[in-house]
Amino acid sequence: MTSLMTFMKKYRGDAIIATLATLVIAFATLWQPRILQEMITAILARDQGTVFNLGIQLIGLALLGIVAGVINTIFSAKTAQEVSADMREKGYRKIQTFSFGNIEKFSASNLVIRLTNDINQVQMVIMSVLQQITRIPILFIGAFILAIITMPKFWWIIVIMLILIVAVSAFSFTRMGNYFEKLQTTLENNNTLARENLMGMRVVKSFVQEQNQIKKFSKSSDEMTDTTIRIGNLFSILMPAFFLVGDLAVAGSILLVGSMVTTDPSMIAAVQAFISYLMQILFAVVMGGFMMTGASRAFVSLGRLQEIYDTEPELTFPETPETDLTGDVTFEHVSFTYPGDQEPVLQDISFSVKAGEMIGIVGATGSGKTTLAQLIPRLYDPDSGVIKVGHEDIKQVNESSLRKTVSYILQRSTLFSGTISHNLRQGKEDATLDDMKWAAHVAQSAEFIEKLDNQYDAKVEERSANFSGGQKQRLSITRGVIKQPDILIMDDSTSALDARSEKLVQEALDKELNGTTTIIIAEKISSIIKADRILVLDQGKLVGMGTHHELVRNNEVYQEIYRTQKALEEV
Amino acid sequence: MKDLKGAGRFFAHYLGKYWQKLSAVILLTIMSTYFQVKAPVFMGHAFEDLAKYMQLYLNPATRATATRTDFNHAILNLIIFYILISASMLISSLLISQVAGRSTGTMRIGLFRKMQRMKISYFDTHSDGDILSRYTSDLDNIFNAMNQALFEVFNSVILFVGMLIMMFRQNATMAWITIATTPIAVILATIVIIKAEKYVNRQQDDVGKLNGYINEQITGQKVIITNGLQEDSINGFVKHNDQVKRTTFKGQAWSGILYPLMQGMSLLNTAIVIFFGSWYVLNGSMSQAAGLGLVVIFVQYAQQYYQPISSLTSLYSMIQLAITGARRINEVREQPDEVAPENGKTFAGIDAKINLKDVHFGYVPHKEILHGINIEVDKGQMVALVGPTGSGKTTVMNLLNRFYDVDSGAITFDDTDIREMDLNNLRDNVGIVLQDPQLFSGTIADNIKFGTPDATEEEVFAAARQANIHDFIMSLPDGYQTQIDDDNSIFSAGQKQLMSIARTIITNPKLLILDEATSNVDTVTEAQIQAAMDNVIAGRTSFVIAHRLKTILNADKIVVLRDGEVIEEGSHKQLLAEKGFYSELYHNQMVFE
After folding, report:
1. Which of A176, A485, A505, B28 is spaced 20 to 30 A from B517 at the CA atom?
2. Of the candidates A309, A311, A353, A349, which has an alpha carbon nearest to the alpha carbon of residue A328?
3. What is the CB neighbour count within 10 angstroms for residue B138?
4. For residue B93, which residues of chain A lie inside 8 Å, CB to CB?
5. Which CATH architecture has domain A329-565?
6. In the predicted model, what is the mean pLDDT of residues A133-147?
């Protein structure tokens, strides 16, 4: 709530205009019955002049109402858009300061939902607050006061009407609460079943389980239908009940006036106004109720946005001057635990790599290979120990120096929609066509890029759907090598390539990036067999280091991996 | 227009059987409208009677004749009518809630049923998200429209007509005054709706682009971080965000203006009616009391007159969404079903052999994937399909249990074309282990006996043991009763594959098709899966689609596919000796020195 106010402050002027316009609308609505009352008195008195005057006033008032309504809408929409655009931008900027750890904690899809759906909720509420909420209390209080001024003796009618409305709402809403919860569960159930069946349609069909699945789904769907109808029934009570209460109050007032009119003839005019006010009170209460339900949802959204604003990046880089780093990498007693995990993923790892070496990392799934590699470009900070790149503790190096030195090619190749060159320039901002061609030849992507109609300006569609898995990986490698980094880390990034292309990539890397330290994480021993040294990880510990020949002879873990991959007979 | 017709058919189909309830709703709406438009008349009478009474009473000469009987009578009528209004609203609202709830339920189950009957090709060519949104947002939109709009539309139309009739019966001049502003209101509303639609569409486009951008960037945030692209990313965002701000403002302003405009028109109209009504009464020949009654009645009408118009305009977008929803669900309903032969031949096992004879096939016309494949498998043999990505291995699997049908040629089991066999019977006898096995929410035991729901506990245990997953399951606190679902699985990718093997073993298939899991499984896990697969294959006719050669070296026959053609065929030893494509593949993958 406080955060919303800070965002609103900037657009105070617009918000005030919108609110003032609401006041005018409320005034116009409230004053009309008043004039009607005088009009009736004038008719009874056959006073033409007054009737004419009042008529002009009435029409003026109505026009004022329309103008105010339009002004209110425009300024409400403006404020709502400005505020939500600012909130979205602040959120987005904050996310751009996040580290890997922050993003994993929220999960990417969750962050996207917060920036889209949640902001949408807030925006709708700002709009309706500025359009309605100020008007509702004013209408309510105004109508209440005017009703009492008009007919002071009838105050109790208003009170009884309000009590009845509250009682009916309380009855319905308390019962509805439980059903809404149930509706949510059955809804999720249905969606899960539908999604599972969609994704597993081949399984369902090949096991001939269509009828059983239909039975299961029907049961869950029927439960949802029953709950929906129960809620619908409770809602059905609301409107007719409100109307009845209001209408009976109206009829009751007229009836009472009938018995008083002989002592106070002005009442016959007053009760007309009183009836209008009764209806306005009823309207304000009902609208207010509906608004509250909407607002409570926005508060949840606001809280979720606040969480983004309040999150501090897990790691920050020092503002030190730019430095040129060499390709040497050193790990000194490094241990690492993922936030929220009990067991460390890496335990006491020490090794050092000289610039220009080719290093392979192998180990079973979950042995910590990727984690180890991710510590080098400082995507996470270790719990303890020191990591050095170019003999400098990476905690003392500024971000751009480190990014310039280390190129990290992720396991899952992600390209962005745009063009190929747009994606390649993410690796090197000022890359020329020659740079791109060179990198594409190294990564073996030139062969398909240069067959495309627009070559390096060919379009990359959303989710890079127009490229195959192997092509995506090669493009992602191209982006990684284009800046000729001092350290190149490839995290299983040739898995979708066939053996021949993989070999060609490695040969090209060897030739063209000779001075570059290359660190390759691989499942297949064939990918790293030529490495100068291979690190063997097992459950977070470094259990071996050496060439393929050494490890095959003396490392048990390596031997087992090798055994599962090598040929039956040596040919 | 075509949408509208389709939507008409759609709703006629699903709402047809509720015709009694819906007729009742229409009847009740007509009644409640009658009460609603008639009530102001009683109120007017009440005031007229009261004014008469007062005038008689205040004049000492006539005081004795003054009576409130007429007044009391009018009030009594008014109260009765008010109760009838609420009662008829309540009943029709209850009925509508039933109809909307039940018919949406029928639509939901119908959609699911249809889904179970459709060809696999539909699922292969449509994204899951798109199909799922028909269950969620489309059905939601339809339900909301039925629940809220159905009554409102009836009510508004009937109310509008009813009010016009009543007004003209009361007093034609006053009625003309009341409806005089209608053309202005209708023109205004039309302009605003057209503008709003234009800008809201533009807004939706821009919001879609922004959301797409946010989604792509944040999903690829790791690339952004590792390449230090944060600033660029923010710049791109700000551009989209500003665009959204501008168009959303216009969209919201235009669509938001409709309501205050209609409210204002109603206020204005009431003012006009009061003004001219008073003028008319004062200058007419009416008695004071009758004049007063008339003004009171028409003030009530004027206040209500715009209500039907403004609620119809506010329902416009809701109805639009429901029509779109109906079209999207109709699209699914019109998809062709799987072709299953009637009285198909049943099949109890393979006696001699399975043949693929000159099989041609393509997923889309004119883009053939398989160009005349011939494969022969003897009973009990294990055949491995090998070849590079895109060679057609998985396609062969798709044909064997008729997920797709061949374009020409035939697949025969003991010389019977599989297209002549009973489809369910065929699939009962062909077991498939898929590369990406889907598990279903439920217990582990439920998942293992997925294909044979009445399997005993012993059978489940035995299957799990054969698949090398029993020990792991027993190590879980709830064992076989552990609840799982596909998203939040306690299984690793390799263990999921083992579950899938167990699920297949228990059905004891006569022909087995194994699509090997390769991605996300390290080679040690792969060896475990291999052992489980060997258990299932033993003594069974089987097709294995191999991605890593290691797993199929013992096959009775290896078929090498490339670009949709069989290029080599034979045992591992024979193929190595040929020194062809297989031999090269083998050397690249398996030989290290």
Report:
1. A505
2. A353
3. 22
4. 235-236, 239-240
5. 3-Layer(aba) Sandwich (3.40)
6. 81
| Cβ distance of A364 and B525 shorter than 8 Å | yes
C-alpha distances (whole Å) from A423 to each of A429, A439, A446, A475 are: 10, 13, 14, 9
How far does the CA of residue A354 sit from the closest CA of chain B (Å)?
Answer: 22
Q: Do A568 and B553 touch (CB under 8 A)?
A: yes
CATH number belonging to domain A2-310: 1.20.1560.10
Phi-psi map region of B360: left, alpha, beta (phi>0 left; psi -120 to 50 alpha): beta
**Tens digit of each residue's pLDDT (9 = 90 or more) over A290-319:** 777 667 777 777 888 888 888 888 888 888
Question: Chain-centre distance of CA A171, in angstroms?
Answer: 36
Convert the pLDDT of each residue in A347-371 to its tens digit.
888 888 888 888 888 887 778 888 8
Q: Search chain A and give the residue with CA nearest B239.
A: A89
The reply to whether residue A208 touches residue B424, judged by beta carbons under 8 angstroms, is yes
Phi-psi region of A350 (alpha: psi -120 to 50; beta: other; left: phi over 0): beta
Tokens of residue A362, six digits: 């192998």
- Nearest CB among B102, B135, B270 relative to A225 is that of B102
The DSSP code sequence of B198-226 is HHHHHHHHHHHHHHHHHHHHHHTHHHHHH
Looking at 3.60.21.10, 1.20.1560.10, 3.40.50.2000, 1.10.3730.10, the CATH number of the domain B2-333 comes to: 1.20.1560.10
**Cα–chain center distance at A282:** 38
Q: Which of B562, B563, B559, B561 is nearest to B575 (CA)?
A: B559
A 289-328 → B contacts, CB under 8 A = none
Indicate the residue type of A570. E
Reported CATH class of domain B353-590: alpha beta
Give the minimum alpha-carbon distance from B133 to chain A in angstroms, rounded to a whole number: 10
Parts of chain B belonging to CATH 3.40.50.300: 353-590
Give CA separation, A60 vs A32, A72, B189, B270, in Å: 11, 18, 21, 12
Residue type, B169: R
B50/A261 touch (CB, cutoff 8 Å), yes or no? yes
Cβ–Cβ pairs < 8 A, chains A and B: 418
ipTM of the complex: 0.80
d(CA B414, CA B535): 25
Residue B487: pLDDT band with limits 50, 70, 90: low
- For residue A417, give the nearest of B216, B591, B593 by CB distance: B216
Q: For residues A257 and A267, is the Cβ–Cβ distance under 8 A?
A: yes
- As a dihedral over the C-alpha atoms of residue B486, residue B489, residue B495, residue B500, rounded to 10 degrees, the angle is -20
Chain A residues inside the 8 Å CB shell of B271: 32, 55, 58-59, 61-62
